Amino acid sequence: MRSVSRNCWRRSSVGTAIAMPERARRVLGVDYGRRRIGLAVGDLRLRIASPLDTLKATGRAVDDARIVLDRARAEDVSVLVVGLPLNMDGSVGPQAELTRTFIAALRAAGAVNVIEADERLSSFAADEAMRAGGLTRRRPKAGRRDRLAAQAILQGYFDSTACDFPTK
Description:
The protein is an alpha/beta fold.
């Protein structure tokens, strides 16, 4: 039996506590949309998310899941944190249903560690980050907003995760 020297426990308003072994260090944040998929990457030890890339969505959850999993493998990622766009009252709307279909496709395609994270206001946080950096939401910069939203989702996950270091 393999020993686990570090467990991280996450509590979410949309999920239950999940234990992660030490090897689960690199994490991919995903902001899934109908046209674009924003990606961010981070490390559980550093607990800092960085924008990575924006992918063009196909509009088909199965194909989009395959594209994201290929990128996750290329980045040596073991955990995917997918933003779930709940309505402000916490209810599930059409975009959240679409995202849940995408999450199911990720799991069906072999993604083992997929975590749903409440992404309310992540696009607002991305807009604020762009404004603070002197950037606008002009069309050529559209992909930047998606990457920054993925970063906000992943950073929110890191910030809400409490790690416990067991003693022997």
